[in-house]
Amino acid sequence: MANLKINLGSLVFQERDFTLLRGLFESRVMTAGHIAALYFDGKREYTKKRLQKLKAAGFIRERKRQVNEPSVLFLTRKAFVALKLNGDLSEYPSLALTALEKRANVSEKTLRHELEVMDVKAAFHSALTKSEKFTVAHFSTWPQLYEFTAVRSGHGAEILVKPDGFIRLHEKEPDGIYERTFFLEVDRSTEKQDILIDRAACYVDFYRSGGFAVRSGALRSEFDKFPFRVLMVFKNAERRNNTAERLLNNNPPILSQIYLTTFAEVTADPLGPIWIEPKDYRAVIDGTPFDTSRQLPSYAYRRQPEREALVEAKIRKFRLLEN
Hints:
alpha+beta
């Protein structure tokens, strides 16, 4: 630990406190539930006591909230200075103190989205702590660290993509450690479907053009040695199915590489049989009245409860780490 020159009061700082504050700096906001899952093995009472000490010492503050809303925590200037002095922020973009406060003062709409991203991250950590084979090597939720530009097929112009998360999981095998890589997209239900499809196509281009291979320190021609999957999380099955249909109607169709699920499923059991690919959706609707492959695409919004019931009853869902 660096020689910390900041008043800690009566608080005896632990290495885990720096890890927690660094995580809060990256994520911008967290609830106590997120912090318990990520840093205290789900021990909520112990988490509560530690957070009370960090609040009292002036390292964490709480956003204003309604009585029935969960406590939302963010980093203070004091914590930011402590992290810089301790050498914990070298891999992040340079940030002034005034910019730090602006990061925490986000709109309610942005806040809800970022808390949902943290819900997904916490669910992954909770599930993987029970695994003897898989561990979380890296799970970042700072979009600027992993943003990239890519071309949407048939459109020409480059698009800037800012992922909600970047995940590296390590798989322990008798002959060594293997890595699985994922990008995370937690859908804002207010976004137009076109934006989601553009983003999905850009991920495909980022892989096939060798952009991710180059980012990983290799040659573009070695792109197939650097596979990744995109995890798209939706508010409900209807939104998921609409996206699967649009991915199939893309030119060229996107059949795999994009994994889709719902928010309820991923936060309940991210490693369970909850994921589908567009080709799985196609296998269910093929030859049914909901098969749009032989029709002119129509992007007018319409509810199809019969389709949702059929898909949910028939579709093959797979486990993330067994596919």
